[in-house]
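Retro notes, structure queue

What went well: the backlog is down to a handful. What didn't: a couple of records were mislabeled last round, so from now on we paste the full input next to the output in the thread. Example, using NAD/NADP octopine/nopaline dehydrogenase family protein from Massilicoli timonensis:
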Amino acid sequence: MKVTIIGGGNIGTLMAAEYADKGHHVTLYTSKPERWSQKIKVYNAEEELLKTAVLHKITNNMEEALADAEYVWGVTPAHTFENMAEKMLPYVTSKHKIGIVPGTGGAEFAFYQFIQKGCTFIGFQRVHSVARLKEYGHSVYELGRKAELRIGVIPASMTQMICNEVAAVLEMPCVPLDNYLSVTLTPSNPILHTTRLYTMFKNYREGMKYPRNFLFYEEWDDASSQMLIDCDQELQTLCDTIPLDLTSVASLQDYYESHSVRAMTEKITSIKAFKGLTSPMKKAVDGDGWIPDWESRYFTADFPYGLKIIKDLAVLFHVATPHIDEVYNWYEQVAKQPHHKVFSLTITKEQLLRLYR
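Corresponding output:
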């Protein structure tokens, strides 16, 4: 099978190695092909080599990357979707199966023309494994595979077939979701990251500095857990209101098996795969202290292409979301990045429901 991976970050590198290891023809599209080796090594957390896979081709030519590909996996942040789609559109046909990993961030709206062309459109509800680059273009860590992978597809009639094919490559159970909206509303980064950032930086003012870069998860606190739970409950109310089966949009309280503020804090601070991860911060210009890094994907993707989607859908279905509004409105006021793209829902309720059926 000919497979193309677009994006050479953590998950893109791992997926390229996984497909190549199974004997598939893998082409990797990247803006920096000169930094890549065709041999990709995968290690575990103990530095043990798990596999060495050989890629077929590495290119920065989109036409070349998409030629004859059966599967095309886009593994880039949500704020890059529109640019990616624009580059891909001239070379995409109805034969392509286009997948986004993870499939959140309003992907189905950015790639709406692809769906109209007759492409099969796929989204993972969450990534199938935690991954971290060891050496860019050469090696990657596989730090924790999930017990199963949930997949949404447009059209929904193709879901079981896609699940079967992906399961064979990733060697894990793949569960078909009833609709792609179950992917779009997954409250991982759009709520997990945004509520933490709001709680950390809500008192930030220009000119302030922090003494160090905080550990994002290991120093998670009860205030962050409270806001996470409040926003998570509002999302569940939205899911109950939309006339589709969205029972697969698991509450973060269920996902982390933590139904109180203290339990949530203890859970998140203890997750091994999150150990050592710092916050989206950068050194102040004078080198003295730390400030928020507004250019981090935590800000450029998880607010305008994560929480904003939930907010827009809540408006469309007349669901009150005061805590989600509080977090998103803070971002709008404090980030002050006019060049950041922001998701905007431009279809009617009827069109939206028809898209997922």
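Agreed that this is the format going forward. Reviewer comment attached to the example: The domain at 189-355 is CATH 1.10.1040.10 (N-(1-d-carboxylethyl)-l-norvaline Dehydrogenase; domain 2).
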